[in-house]
Write a structure and sequence with these properties.
The complex is a heterotrimer of chains A (427), B (349) and C (150). With 427 residues, chain A is of the alpha/beta class. Chain A contains nine helices and 26 strands. Classes of the chains: A alpha/beta (427), B alpha/beta (349), C mainly alpha (150). At the A-C interface, helix 8 of A face helix 3, helix 4 and helix 5 of C. Strand 26 of chain A pairs antiparallel with strand 7 of chain B, so a sheet runs across the interface.
């Protein structure tokens, strides 16, 4: 598949009485954008706020982060099966509003997680502090069902991002990059025959309420491991419904900008032969774990892989899926590197993972999510601090009287990402 | 601002007393820096100074561990320093153990920051890496020029109470505490680079070494128990009454082999436990509770098993080093094989 | 709540079969007990801790039952949610299932090294923890019910 991605750099967001992108500035007229959001009977209120890098702003609780994109040419539309029809994406031309994101915020459950600080030490830990964020703050009606409201809030964010992306349809990109993924036959061509055949195994959180991922609109827990093109992922074929474990959940933005995919494509045909991407789920039911990891290793063999990078999502039992995927590949002679993160305790002395195997001898870590950080008080809060004391990584008394927050890194959205999005590591 | 006071520990060689022939000298204290201490002084600049140097023979320290520790500790205490440095010991084994031992003691007893340096394969590194910070050095004194600045830099951070970065940043041997840091490249790029090395068969370094489990593949099952000779091996410290081999109640330095030919039952008159890590009352009342001689003897009589081996082997697991346990096990295994033992009941407490 | 249909372990750890279902759920979550009590055996540890749940599962594993779901399902941390639900086979194997044993022991390790639980002062949060725990175990139902035997 061949996808031409045109990046339009966004240098600022401001409110106005029309919606447009002009000279790199996104102008937002809230009313028409909020109309479809508020049509949902479960959403009581919704409004936009703007957060600029460096501003003294704390956004919390964050649900999802989404990059506005639009399909300009080729089949389908962004977020197929969710916002657009379920048509296959990944070919043609896509425009991206680079340097910004739609951030959805507001409570779903009482222990809702996720902080994005736009300045201070907290900003160092989240990639989203570097973006111009259009924050969609939502509140549910009373007596809502969490499943239904999560779906409503998820859809509201994706629709809003799609609507904003639509503003970029006619623009001339600042930069255009062509991404191309080969067919299986093409991967055997003569000039690549000496390159190692490398695959990417992308694990998707799929355990239940607030723990789900959707592929072309299907709940990943009801899927078998399968192949997907890197360019389909760029067009939003995978979206996040995951609201727990802010530090190591993969937001929709992470999927759209998957760093492993980008790094592998960058050396494809030069140092490696990037044969394909396998997506596989992380279910609760153990036979599902066994079946999915078996299936992953079968597909890796069908693709005749020499090596693979495996990425994880979430805390705890996905370690089991990770180790299964890793060992099953290694036992077939497929060399692996896994990307994970750690829960080694506040003192860093506990065992980091909930599973282990000596075959997993090449590990990249996103850092210890239990490490404590003190976030300074910031001038403005988008959303609410009501949940800070109960979110993951926060603990009783974590919100101090002066507005500073003493908490673990796991409270910060994307801080220990397991796709290798960040520079943070641990030893 | 006054300088931080540092006491430095070195061995007889770096103290310029002499080589192996002088390793027997007891600890002595000298004023100011000596040998490598001069290089430390240069690196400390205006921040810290070495007020005293303790020079001690490696043999004397290791052969008189308790006395030596106490002696050196007193010498350090007299100076009321802000920081204690030992070594670097490079790959000198006894020097490394001495550095680790005394750093651990100073840290615990005096509550001041300590630092040493050694080669990663120095036995002292393995013994003390999780207790004291050890800067990773080359395997010989040729590495002094690189070791001292690294140690001095980390030492100043320690004495100033600054946050200690990850081992890769600061250059110390991983101490079992996971610390975050910002690498130069993002995780996905690091993963790709690691993968390329792994594919090429080049050495690569995992960012998280998996905890190692010493897994032993099970032997094939015994098909006919009625012909099998069964032995007992225990780390529960069961010994004949009076502990004839004087097996220590903890950190055992030996194991015992005891004949039980004709013994049908272990009683409080004949057997006891040497183990100091659990309440010995029930083991002393009836040692069969730890090693089931009575039941196995009965099985032997009923023909359920072929034979109970004439000897049992016992040590105390309480704090005994894994390396020692492995040594005892290897010796015991050889004996078991020589007696054609088919299976072993292993018990612990 | 349908107490009469719930399971409790006797002090000796014995239990009786009230259902014909092939799986049972060990839980300390009243919402799970109520919602799934008619679909399978529930070993309900009322007011039990997450450790009690996992230890009960471990005891069942020692009696040759098999663990069917991840003992630490979900990304909600053990130091946050007090609720745990684990699905276990009703049938017994001829020996201890090594995988099951490894899983529960790892889970106990994770629980053991996690610090004291956060105080949840709001009843609404308590209910949310129950809801998510229920959802996690419910997500396994289509898988377990799709096959005839375990």
């Amino acid at each position: 598949m061949k996808l031409e991605v045109g990046y339009i750099d966004i240098k600022g967001i401001r409110f106005g009485d029309y919606n447009a992108v002009e000279d790199g500035i996104l102008i937002v007229n809230p009313e028409p954008l909020l109309e479809p959001v508020l049509e949902d009977p479960l959403i009581k209120s919704a409004h936009f706020e703007i957060a600029t890098p460096g501003e003294s702003i704390r956004i919390t609780p964050v649900k999802d982060v989404i990059e506005p994109r639009v399909k300009v040419e080729g089949g389908g539309g962004v977020f197929p099966g969710m916002v657009s029809k379920v048509d296959t994406v990944g070919s043609g031309k896509t425009h991206v509003l680079r340097g910004m994101a739609v951030v959805t915020a507001g409570p779903i459950v009482g222990f809702q997680e996720g902080i994005i600080d736009m300045t201070g030490i907290g900003a160092d830990y989240t990639p989203f502090s570097k973006l111009h964020n259009l924050v969609l703050v939502m509140e549910p009606v009373e007596d809502f069902k969490q499943h239904e409201y999560e779906a409503a809030a998820r859809l509201a964010g994706l629709r809003t991002a799609a609507a904003i992306g639509e503003l970029a349809r006619e623009l001339v990109p600042d930069e255009t990059v062509v991404y191309e993924t080969p067919t299986i036959a093409e991967t055997f061509k003569e000039e690549w025959k000496d390159l190692p055949r490398v695959g990417y195994v992308m694990m998707l959180q799929s355990q239940g309420l607030l723990h789900d991922t959707y592929v072309y609109g299907v709940d990943a827990k009801r899927t078998l491991s399968t192949l997907i093109s890197a360019t389909e992922v760029m067009d939003g074929a995978i979206v996040s419904g995951n609201c727990v474990s802010a530090c190591d959940k993969n937001t929709t933005y992470h999927h759209q900008n998957n760093p492993v995919i980008h790094d592998l494509l960058a050396v494809h045909g030069k140092k490696i032969n990037f044969v394909g991407t396998i997506i596989t789920n992380e279910n609760v039911y153990l036979d599902d774990k066994i079946r999915s990891s078996d299936w992953t290793s079968k597909m890796a063999r069908y693709l005749s892989l020499d090596a693979a990078i495996i990425t994880q999502e979430g805390f705890g039992n996905p370690d089991t899926d990770l180790i299964m995927n890793c060992t099953k590949l290694e036992k077939q002679g497929i060399k692996t590197v896994i990307i994970t993160d750690e829960y080694a305790g506040q003192d860093g002395k506990s065992q980091s993972l909930a599973d282990a195997d000596e075959l997993a001898n090449a590990v990249v870590t996103g850092g210890n999510a239990n490490e404590v950080v003190v976030l300074p008080p910031l001038d403005r809060v988008i959303g609410t601090l009501d949940y800070v004391d109960t979110v993951a990584g926060g603990h009783a008394g974590s919100l101090r009287p002066d507005g500073s927050i003493e908490a673990e890194l796991q409270i910060i959205t994307g801080s220990t990402n397991e796709m290798g999005f960040n520079r943070m590591s641990a030893r | 601002m006054s300088k931080f006071k540092v006491v430095h520990y070195i061995n007889q060689f770096f103290g310029q007393v002499g080589g192996e022939e002088m390793a027997h000298i007891p600890a002595e204290k000298r004023e100011g820096p000596v040998g490598p201490g001069l290089a430390f002084t240069k690196n400390f600049g205006d921040d810290a100074e070495i007020v005293a140097t303790i020079v001690c023979g490696d043999s004397w320290f290791n052969e008189n561990l308790e006395l030596a520790t106490e002696t050196v500790l007193d010498m350090v205490k007299e100076e009321s320093p802000d920081l204690f440095i030992a070594g670097p010991a490079f790959n000198a084994g006894r020097y490394g153990v001495a550095c680790g031992t005394i750093c651990d003691a100073v840290q615990t007893e005096l509550g001041i920051p300590v630092l040493t340096g050694m080669y990663v394969e120095n036995p002292g590194a393995d013994m003390f890496r999780t207790k004291v910070l050890i800067v990773s050095t080359a395997d010989s004194a040729a590495g002094m020029r690189r070791a001292v600045p690294a140690m001095a830099k980390l030492a100043l951070k320690l004495v100033k109470g600054e946050r200690i970065g990850a081992s890769v940043e600061e250059g110390y041997i991983p101490d079992g505490v996971r610390r975050n840091f910002f690498d130069k490249k993002r995780g996905s790029t690091r993963a790709l680079e690691m993968l390329l090395k792994k594919i090429a068969g080049e050495p690569f370094e995992t960012e998280y070494p998996m905890p190692t489990f010493d897994r032993v593949p099970p032997m094939p099952a015994i098909t006919d128990m009625t012909k099998a000779t069964i032995a007992i091996v225990t780390s529960g410290g069961i010994v004949p009454k009076g502990n004839p081999d004087r097996i220590e109640s903890s950190s055992a330095s030996k194991y015992g082999s005891y004949n039980i030919e004709g013994v049908d039952d272990l009683t409080s008159e004949t057997y006891e436990t040497a183990h100091g890590g659990h309440d010995p009352v029930y083991a002393n009342e009836d040692a069969d509770r730890v090693i089931p001689v009575d039941v196995l003897r009965q099985y032997e009589k009923e023909g359920k098993i072929g034979k109970l081996h004439d000897w049992f082997y016992s040590t105390v697991g309480n704090g005994t080093a894994v390396a020692s346990s492995k040594k005892y096990a290897a010796e015991i295994a050889e004996k078991l094989i020589s007696y054609d033992v088919d299976a072993v009941v292993l018990t612990s407490t | 709540m349908i107490i009469g249909e719930l399971w409790r372990l006797t002090p000796g750890g014995e239990q009786e079969t009230l259902h014909t279902s092939k799986f049972q759920i060990v839980t300390n979550n009243p919402m799970v007990a109520e919602a799934l009590g008619e679909r399978c055996h529930i070993v309900f540890l009322e007011h039990g801790s997450d450790r009690d749940v996992i230890e009960t599962v471990r005891d069942l594993v020692h009696r040759h039952h098999r663990v069917l779901t991840a003992p630490l399902a979900g990304s909600v941390k053990p130091w946050e949610t007090p609720y745990r639900s684990v699905m276990v086979s009703v049938s017994k194997g001829t020996a201890i299932d090594a995988t099951s044993l490894e899983l529960v022991e790892f889970a106990l390790m994770v629980i053991g090294q996690s610090r004291e639980r956060l105080e949840t002062t709001k009843p609404s949060i308590d209910r949310d923890f129950q809801t998510v725990d229920l959802s996690l175990i419910e997500s396994a139902l289509p898988s377990v019910e799709a096959i005839g035997r375990i």
